[in-house]
Amino acid sequence: MSASTLTPVSTQRNLEAIVEAALEQARRAGAAQAEAGVSTDVGLSVTVRLGEVESLEYQRDRGMGITVYVDGRKGSASTADLSAGAVRETVEKALSIARFTAVDSFAGLADATLMAHDIPDLSLHHPWAIDAEAAIDIARDTEAAALAFDPRIRNSEGGSVSTHSGIRVYGNSHGFVGGYPSTTHSLSCVVMGQNGEEMQRDYWYSTTRDAGRLEAPAEVGRRAAQRAVARLGSRKLSTRRTPVVFAAEQARGLVGHFVSAVRGGAQYRKSSFLCGAAGQQVFPAWLGMTERPHLQAELGSAPFDNEGVATRERELVREGVLTGYVLDSYSARKLGLATTGNAGGVHNLEVTPGAEGLEALLARMGTGLLVTELMGQGVNIVTGDYSRGAVGFWVEGGAIAHPVHEVTIAGSLRDMYRGIVAVGADVDRRGGIRSGSILLAEMTIAGE
Predict the structure, then answer these.
(1) Half-sphere exposure of 77 (CA within 13 A, CB side)
(2) How far does CA 332 lie from the centroid of its chain?
(3) Alpha-carbon Rg of the chain, whole angstroms?
(4) What confidence score (pLDDT) does residue 314 get?
(5) Which of 58, 189, 198, 321 has the most crowded Cβ, counting Cβ within 10 A?
(6) pLDDT (tens digit, 9 = 90+) per residue, 172-196?
(7) What is the residue extent of each domain of the chain?
């Protein structure tokens, strides 16, 4: 397969026609409302381990899903076959399923007045003209840079390159049909450092919409190796309470737990420690969070959500106060509210960064733990209890003293959020949540 084939296999107009045909068929069959989404995706993924190609995969995926609403009942069906006959049969299956589901007065399309009418070009589509041979060379260069960084780098899980290009079209019986192409490219490396009997593993990666913005292969490899070597000589800690800094790539997860707690589903099910918290002080008064869905060429950008609702900039947290929830149309109706255009998740949710980099945050902390990796799933959104395995570095006098492993950090998310001391300027933009490193006043460290 040549690089030129790494483009969507169908034009956007072709996909729009499939959606329109499915919706028309559903209407003729008696559906009061219907919505359909069609997508195509092509990609290339390569992993090189110890200089040899370990995996080489081409992907070519496509599919359609349709949901119909008949007399308050909902039915959904999907297919990977986009032929006219398969689409017709899929619509019929969705209608058949709807006959057996319970009536739900909250189900249905988002309000017609909220549909995106003027769809902005957010520069989300940047195809990478790369073939398998070139991808292998880049993956090999990435791993080679890591292996050459330090003689203590003794093994590797590989350097990897991936590129994906696709189109998604969504439409519903309000008359809305919209879509846009997008791309995602990534470069990563995972290596192991060894000193005597001790072995430590670490990684680094870069991911963007535009391959021209990827970190250089040598830099990705170097950072992976540097992180692995830095972990050699890790020690345990005794149990204590101490300040903690979450490195930026881990801070995104900490913010993600907050987003989970304020999602509509968690709110109407009463399964969140922040249940009914809109209007309450959740964070320090200096902290804000703003959703910016229309940033150019960013991974979390989208002109409309999964229900066709126009996305918009929004302050989710203002001066530490939660202004509302993260809602799709169904959860909004359950709560007696309006959708916030978040069917499918948040779009570039930014924690307002401070002026200090990571080194300045460590100096401000003085003595405490810098967390660079987390393990386990010990987060209870219902109660807010937080307990996870952690790896990182012990900091004394504002400087890293030694690496740390086999500890558990624990606390209450409510107290952790209120106890945020500072947010760093080192914003990690590799996803839909964007945050710098976060300094917390205190957590429990469970060790020896």
Answers:
(1) 20
(2) 22
(3) 24
(4) 97
(5) 189
(6) 999 999 999 999 999 999 999 999 9
(7) 3-230, 240-253+353-446
